[in-house]
Amino acid sequence: MNILALNCGSSSVKYQLYNWETHCVTAKGVAERIGVGESFLLHKTINGEKKITEPTLADHLSAVELIMKTLTDPVYGVIKEITEISAVGHRVVHGGEKYTKSEIITPKVTDTIKELSVLAPLHNPPNLAGILAVQKLMPDAPQVAVFDTAFHQTMPDTAYLYAVPMEWYEKNNIRKYGFHGASHLYVSKRAAVMLGKSASECNLITLHIGNGVSVTAVRNGVSADTSMGFTPLEGAVMGTRCGDIDPAVPLYMQKILGKSAGEIDSVLNKNSGLLGITKRFTDFRDIERQAKAGDKLCELAINIKVYRLKKYIGMYTATLGRLDAVIFTAGTGENSALLRKLTLKGLEHIGIDINEEKNLATNTSSGETDISTPESKVKVFVIPTNEELVLVEDVVAVLNGAYTDHMRFPYSFVK
Ligand code: ADP
Fold first, then answer.
1. Average pLDDT estimate for 312-319
2. The pLDDT value given to residue 36
3. Residue 229 falls inside a structural domain
């Protein structure tokens, strides 16, 4: 059985074709610059990489069409007919309060994804466009929506409500939703395996640190709190997003600069975070390199970023009570030994003790690694994330009717 996982962004479509029987990714790639011009598709298989350039992929339908054509290409394709794809899983960013688990896509589900576009105007419309494209090209294939927000629907109201007028929640859906759900879910399940316990026995803090950053407190295997909020702007310091900020600041700056709300929103999302502080860089590798060479703003950006992460670990340790492990994942979390070392420095009093040499030697290609000392009361794991596998396993779980309870994902993430 071949399952296609699709992640449709505003101008890109990422894909992975997974063979369920052999547990192998047979092809993966990305269609870029959709609707922008100079579009291309980068397609990878075990036999190598192929770049297909297209003057313009006008929309998501043309992109998905090109992906299907490439997957069935006689030379660099991996299947003969598109009908060899049994089902398609879509990453959908916002499922609101409606969806606590992945869902088979029906007209009702597509309507809800559309309705929820008000909460995720940049994400849900391209997610929906991908679903509609597959419906048109493969009308018989079942499709499943895997919501980023679903994993966090277990948060208690004390964690997800903001202290604003209750009518804002009741009438306008203002609350914390949380994001990166598939990643937090995946690494917490894998951490449970590394701890030799069932997920429902584990209290964890999972740090997804890529361009976007979110920290989640996992109590008994489910999300108890998370740093991203109503939108993915809240929380940690990110590549270009500011994270936590006094809400009075944007209102004040809007007045001072004579800018519109939209313009200030754009500054907070696109010109803040590491880019805002350093004035130049979003990539953590550049910032580490420049800091080493003596750039004071880069050094400051690193210090602000790790200070904020440390605060989240402290807060979530306090709220969880018992903590079994801290997990680092995503581009920076998996690859920056410096970030991990500085974030955990001084946390010995809560039982965190890392093996410095192991930390230094660990990156994505190391696979799942325990970088704590044998004496460390709280384990520290580096776990490469695999959001696509969550999509694939969820498609199978939903189609088999195998969802049981909040623990979700009856499969154990085959490796
Ligand atoms: P996203 O999916 O949010 O775009 P990724 O998980 O791909 O992000 O992570 C991208 C980030 O990972 C980049 O900011 C990059 O700086 C960082 N990164 C990748 N490799 C390294 C490395 N070796 N050291 C430090 N940071 C790294």
1. 98
2. 86
3. yes
**Residue 415 pLDDT greater than 80, yes or no:** no
CB within 8 Å of 149: residues ≥ 6 apart = 93, 94, 95, 96, 99, 177, 178, 179, 181
Examine the pLDDT at 192 and tell me if it is beyond 90.
yes
Closest residue by Cα to atom 24, ligand 1, is: 336
Measured by CA distance, the residue closest to atom 23 of ligand 1 is: 335
Q: Work out the pLDDT band at 358, boundaries 50, 70, 90.
A: very high
- CATH code of the domain covering residue 33: 3.30.420.40
Q: Count of domains in the chain?
A: 2
The reported pLDDT for the residue numbered 55 is 81
What residue numbers bound the domain in which 370 lies?
197-384
CA of 340 to the centre of ligand 1 (A): 13
**What whole-number distance in Å separates Cα of residue 219 and Cα of residue 318?**
12
Asked if 166 and 133 touch (Cβ cutoff 8 Å), the reply is no
**Do residues 211 and 358 both lie within one domain?**
yes
Residues 358 and 396 in one domain: no
State yes or no: is 148 an active-site residue.
Answer: yes
Q: Indicate if 319 and 373 belong to the same structural domain.
A: yes
How much is the pLDDT for 413? 46
Tell me, yes or no, whether 355 and 213 share the same domain: yes
**110 CB within 6 A, ligand 1:** no
Looking at the structure, tell me whether residues 321 and 354 fall in a common domain: yes
What 3-state class would DSSP assign to 18? strand
User: Does any ligand 1 atom lie closer than 6 A to the CB of residue 329?
Assistant: no
165: which 2 tokens?
């007028």
- On whether both 25 and 128 belong to a single domain, the answer is yes
Same-domain pairing of 215 and 309: yes
Mutate to test the pocket of ligand 1, among 187, 206, 211 (most ligand atoms within 8 A of CB): 211
Residue 407 has pLDDT above 60, yes or no: no
Q: Report d(CA 345, CA 354) in Å as an integer.
A: 9
Q: Considering the chain, what percentage of its residues have pLDDT values greater than 90?
A: 87
